[in-house]
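Please review this one:
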Amino acid sequence: MDNKVFKTFSDLMDTLEESQEDLTKFLHGNKAAGTRLRKAMQKVKQYAQKVRVEVQECKNSVTV
């Protein structure tokens, strides 16, 4: 299960890194880059929620 959390977190970080160029383009006035950036941020939000759920599942499955 830990591997699943790591994979999801890695996907989140990849999405952030990939969207960095669009951020720069948007700040220089490229509106299409802003649309791509907003789409990427929605994906980040979904990955973040998935990480939260997976971590909680791991936490709950550990028996003390």
